[in-house]
Amino acid sequence: MSPPAVQFAEVSASRGGRTVLRQVSLSVAAGQTVALVGRSGSGKTTLLRLVNRLLDPDSGDVLVDGLSTRAWNPVDLRRRTGYVIQDAGLFPHVTVAGNIATVPRLLEWPSARIEARVDELLTLVGLDPAVFRGRWPDQLSGGQRQRAGLARALAADPPLLLMDEPFGALDPITKGELHAEFQRVQRTLHRSVILVTHDMAEACLLADQIAVLHDGEVIACDTPANVVAANDVRVTSLFGELRLKPEATPRVNP
Fold first, then answer.
1. Distance CA 112, CA 98 (A)
2. Within 13 Å and on the Cβ side, how many CA atoms surround 140?
3. What is the pLDDT of residue 254?
4. Homologous superfamily of the 1-80+160-254 domain (CATH)
5. What confidence score (pLDDT) does residue 241 get?
6. Residue 153 burial by Cβ neighbours in a 10 Å radius (0-12, 13-18, 19+)
7. Are 169 and 86 in contact (CB under 8 A)?
8. What is the largest CA-CA distance in the chain?
9. How many CA atoms lie within 13 A of 203 on its CB side?
10. Is the predicted pLDDT of residue 203 greater than 50, yes or no?
11. Cα separation, 227 vs 60, whole angstroms
12. Which of 2, 58, 139, 181 has its CB surrounded by the most CB atoms within 10 Å?
């Protein structure tokens, strides 16, 4: 049996002298989308940043494909881990095609392969290569920037995606379109995904499992339907509206 894509084993971490994570244990299976939810300061983004060694734990271990992140070469680890943030984080003075090509060029892919990959990914995320490959980031709408950011994260075909509030700055209509696009891409690629979000409906829609963090601890981790139905007041306070709206019932994962 293959190891989990990511495993947190009794992980504790502090920042600025404050304990942020307390003995967190959590697994992300290959091909699974896990959403991290919780109030601000609960440790979601800290947990995410431990995966590609932007931070190191004070104790415990983080394993990627069964290997401790401390044993990974940090550059190799980051190149095989796609990273998507709010507002995409595109390089402003590089075209859309240049942004997507960043990691393949670092990996010294042949030019023809890079060009083909750029066009393939733009098509995958719903951007016409003939229209968008030569555009600059400031010529894109917010939704188009997020699509381009997702394409850049996927450029070197990483098995793991880390997504930190990737849809948080978008209007509801654009967010809905990007949710559908993400689901379509995930059905095609089956990547392992860790998604940080403050949007509980988004977590229920996109995730196979939801991990609820409270004061640096994982207090629930289960399917969206089971998490929403939980009796813990710390959980129900986050999902209150969804519990009352039948039309917002989380999808049931196979």
1. 14
2. 27
3. 40
4. P-loop containing nucleotide triphosphate hydrolases (3.40.50.300)
5. 61
6. buried
7. yes
8. 55
9. 29
10. yes
11. 26
12. 181
Mean pLDDT of the chain: 90
pLDDT of residue 168: 83
pLDDT, tens only, 28-74: 999 999 999 999 889 999 999 999 999 999 999 999 999 999 999 99
Domain ranges of the chain: 1-80+160-254, 88-158
Query: What span, in angstroms and rounded, lies between the C-alpha atoms of 220 and 24?
Result: 11
Tokens of 217: 């601890």
Burial label for 166, CB within 10 Å (0-12, 13-18, 19+), is buried
Tell me whether strands 6-15 and 59-64 are parallel, antiparallel or unpaired: antiparallel
Cβ neighbours of residue 127 closer than 8 Å, sequence gap 6 or more: 96, 144, 147, 148, 151
C-alpha 233/C-alpha 138 separation (Å) is 44
Nearest-angstrom CA–CA distance, 4 and 63:
8
Residue type, 237: S
The tokens 């090509």 sit on which residue?
Answer: 101
What the block records as the tokens of 104 is 């393949």
* Residue 108 structure tokens: 């010294």
In this prediction, residue 243 has a pLDDT band, given cuts at 50, 70 and 90, of: low
- The whole-angstrom distance between residue 146's C-alpha and the CA centroid of its chain comes to 12
- Strand pairing class (59-64; 67-68): antiparallel
Residue 188 CB coordination number (10 Å): 9
Looking up tokens 């306070």, which residue turns up?
Answer: 237
